[in-house]
Design brief:
CATH class of the largest domain: Alpha Beta
Number of strands: 23
CATH superfamily of the largest domain: FAD/NAD(P)-binding domain
Radius of gyration: 24 Å
CATH architecture of the largest domain: 3-Layer(bba) Sandwich
Number of domains: 2
Helix content: 25-40%
Largest sheet: 8 strands, mixed
Shape: globular
Number of helices: 16
Strand content: 15-25%
Length: about 575
């Protein structure tokens, strides 16, 4: 549908978490807002994600009785993000993040809850917390969207059950104990029954969790505030009024036309994960071309902004946030990318090996640190192979990649080449072109400590974060068990990105900056179009969504209030 008018107060380009937040806040402040989305679906990569939002000292923590302070967060970030680059933006994030959450809860349909047991990624550092800084979306009933539910990007099918049933984080242990615990069995039966009823009305489950719930809540916020959304339209240029951005030129169908923005334009197109030219320019060669992000993230915002003189923040420790991923083909022929975030690597009874057949990393580290180790081990060589190695007992109990726990027949995965199987470790090594003697020695060395719950080589399971990702029911170490029961399996993993860290330079009001540091009037950026305030460091889960919501909020408020949005908040100037 074409927009009802050709002039708006605010135009937002991109309908992921950052863009929808900016649009919802601007609309809640009384502005007329248009969102332009290049594809036919809403939600971006957020709709596929775990929906974690990292906001230190957030109001939900206080309500749950969890202690935190800005001082502790500053101390933690000083060691995990040691660079001085973007220090002012981190100060603005810490000052205004809690404010953003309180505002969204009060004036939009966004509802979040603290994850009480979810440690920061470096829990041994001063100022770290064991939980609560991470917020997750409250489950959302997709039927509330009515006919618009069809516009919400579905979650990755590999993260659903029975062809479309989403489960929340707390349901997973119960599903694993089905048949072993009466309480868990009853809970699983209730979930499946509710899902069956949902499928009578919808092609997929309508009880939404994780990032899909967050995207749905933001979408509901736009619909409730009459925000117009133009789908399947490309923004080909930014319109200038002197030195100010005054609107956009779009291509919708076969014609181009201009749409004006009285207050400004917000760029939130998702970064450049799927742009081969920008990846080659900024990514290490060993990173390859695999991305776990939405394919529409092709650098549109960066090209639009740099064409009018915007500066890029390239001073990053890492150009992206990384995750190990396995590749496969779905039944419809499409390529699938499975991000190995938290479901398998840290569980007891699996190891990761390099092309030489040796372990190279503590498998229970954060996904970002895991891939940094892959990149270091790869020595800049593209396509260098890495594998996860496990036995049948592990595969049955925990699954591997998209193969879910308790899968009786894994033959189709073996036939497809996604899973490599052998009756012994030497045979497995031969099938993945590794010297049998080396892989046999690697597994034997690991097992010698694992039999006692130890990992002398890498110290796996030595922090509360690592143990949190393991299996609490496995003793003495929730992250370590021997690999002993044939047959044995290997799955190839690749370095992949979860989103780019390089993006536009902005100030503390989310205004895009020129090379000389001056703001481009009328132009804002948030989400992955904005350079990461963490400079490619990854101190905790939700490190992209936390800043995305915060700076989306800041942009929306600044567009509505102008200078009033720069007021001191919680004793810290928002403009630092």
């Amino acid at each position: 549908m074409m927009p009802a008018q050709e002039t708006y107060d605010v135009i937002v380009i991109g309908a992921g978490a950052g863009g929808m937040t900016a649009a919802a806040v601007a609309a809640a402040e009384g502005l007329r807002v248009l969102v332009i989305e290049k594809i036919a679906l809403i939600g971006g990569t957020t709709a596929w994600s775990g929906g974690m939002v990292w906001i230190p000292a957030n109001p939900k923590m206080r309500e749950a009785g969890l202690a935190d302070s800005i001082t502790d967060a500053v101390q933690y970030l000083s060691s995990t993000v040691p660079e001085t680059v973007n220090a002012g933006l981190r100060a603005a994030f810490l000052a205004r993040g809690p404010e953003a959450i309180a505002y969204l809860e009060a004036k939009t349909d966004v509802r979040l809850q603290p994850v009480k047991a979810c440690p920061d990624y470096y829990p041994e550092r001063l100022g770290a917390t064991s939980g609560g800084r991470v917020l997750e979306p409250v489950a959302f009933d997709g039927t509330r969207l009515g006919v618009h539910f069809a516009r919400l990007r579905a979650p990755l099918p590999e993260f659903t059950l029975f062809g479309g049933m989403m489960v929340n984080r707390l349901d997973i242990p119960h599903l694993r104990r089905t048949g072993k615990s009466l309480r868990s069995t009853m809970r699983a039966a209730r979930l499946v029954s509710e899902y069956a009823l949902q499928r009578l009305r919808s092609p997929r489950g309508t009880m939404l969790h994780l990032g899909n719930a967050l995207a749905a809540r933001l979408y509901a916020s736009l619909l409730a505030r009459q925000v117009e959304i133009l789908f399947s339209a490309d923004v080909v240029d930014l319109s200038m009024q002197g030195d100010r951005v005054g609107g956009v030129v779009i291509r919708h169908g076969s014609r181009d036309r201009s749409i004006a923005a009285r207050r400004g334009v917000v760029l939130a197109t998702g970064g450049f994960s799927h742009d081969a030219v920008l990846r080659k320019r900024f990514f290490p060669t060993a990173a390859g071309l695999v991305s776990a992000t939405n394919a529409a993230a092709t650098g549109d915002g960066l090209r639009l902004a740099t064409a009018i003189g915007a500066a890029l923040n390239t001073d990053a420790t890492s150009p992206a946030y990384w995750v190990p991923a396995s590749l496969f083909r779905r039944a419809d022929g499409s390529r699938g990318v499975f991000p190995h975030t938290v479901t398998d690597r840290a569980k007891p009874g699996v190891i990761a090996v390099n092309a030489a057949g040796r372990r190279f990393v503590n498998e229970a580290l954060s996904y970002h640190e895991f891939v940094l180790a892959m990149l270091r081990d790869g020595h800049g060589e593209p396509n260098r192979p890495f594998y996860l190695i496990c036995d049948r007992q592990f595969l049955w109990r925990y699954g591997l990649g998209r193969i879910k726990p308790f899968t009786h027949n894994v033959r189709r995965f073996v036939v497809a080449g996604e899973l490599i199987e052998a009756p012994d470790i030497a045979g497995l090594a031969a099938r993945i072109s590794i010297k049998p003697a080396v892989l046999t020695a690697t597994v034997a060395s690991y097992n010698s400590g694992a039999n006692e719950g130890r990992d002398p080589e890498f110290g796996r399971g030595s922090t509360i974060y690592q143990r949190h990702l393991g299996d609490a029911a496995h003793k003495p170490n929730p992250c370590v068990a021997p690999i002993v029961g044939p047959p044995f399996f290997a799955m190839r993993i690749y370095p992949a990105d979860l989103g780019t860290a390089i993006g536009m330079k902005v100030d503390a009001q989310a205004r895009v900056l020129r090379e000389d540091g001056s703001p481009i009037a009328g132009l804002y950026a948030c989400g992955n179009d904005m350079g990461s305030i963490m400079n490619g460091n990854c101190p905790g889960p939700g490190i992209m969504l936390g800043p995305a919501l915060t700076f989306g909020y800041i942009a929306g408020r600044h567009l509505a209030e102008g200078a009033a949005a720069c007021k001191t908040t919680a004793g810290v100037p928002a403009s630092v």
